[in-house]
Write a structure and sequence with these properties.
With 511 residues, the protein is mostly helical. 50% of the residues lie in helices and 0% in strands. It has 23 helices and no strands. It has helices spanning 33-46, 52-60, 79-93, 107-113, 158-180, 188-197, 214-219, 227-230, 242-257, 263-273, 281-291, 298-301, 317-321, 327-338, 344-360, 367-376, 383-397, 401-412, 420-433, 438-447, 452-467, 475-478, 497-509. Helix 5 runs antiparallel to helix 21. The relative contact order is 0.15. Mean pLDDT is 90; it is low at 3-15 and 123-153.
């Protein structure tokens, strides 16, 4: 999603991290009420609430729209405007959404809304944020793992084969993320222009500044924090990014608490191991809410207009990796993780990825089967399910992927570029159009714009699984990574993807 900092060397703030504002003040991003209210007004319009009265009050008082790309407006609002923003956030939160029946929040309601899925575990009426599934509904025998097992009876090649696939998934996630980093936040026409100028369109290789006219680089500058470590001419290992940090935290969560972890366990892990400055959007708001003394699931809803953005999706892979052949359990884990920070379509995106990944991790599914499995875990009348279905239909209808992207942007371009709905639709379309091929999957996902590094990471992880082995990922993608990942997550800096695969396989084998 939002890049953090490369290593080695002292940590630097990401592009939306706290920094000096006017007169040396710290201007914290993704947290100011005067910026949050604009995003909440947009969220209200998307989920069917009437933002009109709040919008009129905000505009009449001199309030500005939410920043389109940045995490904060340039200058703080005066006290009276900040107080109004806080009041309007509370008022908007009290408005009921007419979509709530089709877009349930509780785990029990999500399970009930997904009749086409292999029955999902956990239907007891326990608090959803800390719900630990104790029993699985009657499932088809082939989807029901043996007692005390994780579904690996359906896994091709046993534990050795699983480790190979997991290494390919970790590598694929890094490749896709790194490919998307230099063009994160750029508009679609800028991405296309930069790649064409370098002779790299349709996208088929790392972005490069070689041969790109200076005027074009001035009009569409690379992401300023990422470009020094993510262009073809300067890649040296995998630099730090939250799209890799969160899977590492998920692995650490499972090592400490096992698969029966609760949402509160996720919260405690973050407070212990995740610096607040390494969080963005919904994760930063939830972190702030924890420090205010709120408990899940209120951490996901209080003054959090980013609750349907992509942050939970980028945390979902590890839950699929550790439940191969068991999409229901993967989705249940992803739910308990996502409930700290997200609701609605933000959660559904995580369920989609976790279930699809668990299916792909068996080594027996093709990409289309995996995507169908993921979609079956999403409430079918939700906006996210509709968008994924549209993405898959469009991928089937168009031979030129640029036309697929154009149709997606025409239909979902009103959403923020980090929102889960358009990005999940693009990920699904890219994977389906590429028919699971690794290079085509990551390049299509990144070339479609929006949250380029997150989309590339998720597509790369699933396509990597499907290759079956890191040796089947082309050398031009794997060689620059040097089997080395930089991170500030404790205990993982400099780790190799082969070691990560071994550690992940250990968690997959745990009951």
């Amino acid at each position: 999603m939002t890049p953090t900092t490369p290593a080695p060397g002292p940590p630097k703030p990401g592009p939306d991290a706290p920094g000096p504002g006017p007169a040396g003040r710290v201007r914290l991003t993704w947290a100011q009420p005067e910026d949050l209210v604009g995003h909440e007004l947009r969220q209200a319009a998307e989920d069917g609430r009437d933002p009109g009265p709040a919008l009129r009050a905000w505009s009449a008082a001199g309030g500005h729209p939410a920043p389109e790309r940045a995490g904060a407006s340039a200058a703080p609002a005066p006290p009276h405007l900040r107080a109004l923003a806080t009041r309007l956030l509370d008022e908007l939160a009290r408005l009921p959404s007419p979509l709530c029946a089709d877009e349930p929040t509780s785990w029990t309601a999500i399970v009930a809304a997904c009749p086409q899925a292999t029955p999902l575990p956990g239907t007891a009426s326990t608090p959803p944020a800390d719900h630990v599934p104790q029993a699985r509904l009657q499932a088809a025998p082939e989807a029901q793992p043996a007692r005390g097992h994780t579904g690996t009876g359906r896994v091709a090649g046993g534990q050795g084969g699983l480790r190979e696939r997991l290494e390919a998934a970790w590598v694929g996630r890094a490749v896709g993320c790194l490919l998307g980093k230099p063009v994160e936040k750029l508009p679609l026409d800028g991405i296309r222009a930069l790649a064409r100028a370098a002779g790299n369109w349709p996208l088929d290789d790392w972005f490069s500044a070689r041969g790109v006219p200076p005027a074009l680089l001035a009009a569409h500058p690379w992401n300023r924090r990422s470009a020094p470590t993510s262009l073809a001419e300067n890649i040296d290992g995998m630099p730090e990014d939250d799209d890799l940090n969160y899977p590492l935290l998920g692995l650490l969560l499972l090592q400490r608490h096992g698969k029966a972890f609760t949402t509160s366990d996720v919260a405690r892990l973050w407070l212990d191991e995740l610096p607040a400055g390494r969080t963005f959007t919904a994760e930063r708001i939830a972190y702030r809410n924890l420090l205010l003394g709120l408990e899940p699931p209120a951490t996901a809803t209080h003054h959090n207009p980013f609750r349907e953005w992509i942050g939970a999706l980028i945390r979902a892979d590890v839950h699929g990796w550790t439940n191969p052949g068991d999409p229901p359990s993967a989705a249940a884990q992803a739910y308990r993780d996502a409930a700290l920070t997200h609701t609605g379509n933000g959660v559904y995106a995580a369920l989609f990825v976790a279930a699809a990944t668990a299916e792909a991790a068996t080594g027996r599914a093709d990409v289309h089967t995996a995507l169908r499995t993921g979609l079956a875990a999403v409430p079918p009348r939700s906006r996210l399910a509709e968008a994924v279905r549209f993405g898959l239909r469009t991928a089937a209808d168009e031979t030129d992927f640029d036309l697929v992207v154009d149709r997606l942007h025409a239909r979902y371009g009103h959403y923020h570029w980090v929102h889960a709905v358009p990005n999940t639709a693009l990920i699904a379309a890219a994977l389906a159009h590429a028919d699971g091929d690794f290079t085509r999957s990551v390049c299509r996902a990144v070339s479609g714009g929006w949250d380029t590094d997150s989309n590339g990471a998720t597509a790369g992880a699933l396509a990597g699984l499907l290759t079956g082995s890191p040796q089947r990922i082309p050398h031009r993608w794997t060689a620059p990574l040097k089997n080395r990942l930089a991170t500030t997550v404790p205990g993982f800096d400099g780790i190799g993807f082969d070691t990560l695969a071994h550690l992940t396989a250990q968690e997959a084998a745990r009951s």
